[in-house]
Amino acid sequence: MNVETKICGIKSEDALNAALAGGADYIGLVFYPPSPRYLDTDTASQLAELARGKTNITCLFVDPTDEYLMEIVPKVQPDYIQLHGKETPDRVAAIKSITNKPVIKAIAVEKPQDVALADAYDNVELILFDSKPDPNIVDPLPGGNGLAFDWKTLENQYQNRKFMLSGGLNPDNVQAAIALTKPSAVDVSSGVESSPGVKDCKLIEQFLINVQAANLNP
To answer: pTM here?
Structure first.
């Protein structure tokens, strides 16, 4: 088993360099203005150029319009589009056609029935399972909330397709999460931050080290 890694919500060169030094397979650049990890196009383009050829660059959107996609994608030139909203399979197909990029689709999970929703998305390159936002929070972010769902929901439930695990992961729990769910990749954002939107390079380093340890000792 070789679990890949994604560091999402990169906003600075320091964080990017920590992700690259640790061998992250993907980095995520967020284009959702309410998020503390949101980037303007110029900054994102600069970071993407530094990362190009060294890792997979992912642009994260939440129910984007065609116009917004075409404002961002040609400038940043990501390797993947990540969709973290309520995009239907048909909308995913349209976005793939518009951008000519492979798609990672996030599915919010609270109960086993939620996992089954992924089956409709047979036109994506990778499913990402994340936790549902806390219903008690007003206007919650669709991801990056530091909340984990019950990983047993995925145990023996989704072994027929590659998937990425997200939601509440951090250096301390990622090995247990890998052992239980056996994902193709793990995705972390708030779990390697010192405050919302501010990446901690030491935590990025430790997260990546711990995933490597899990790969060596499956």
So the answer is: 0.92
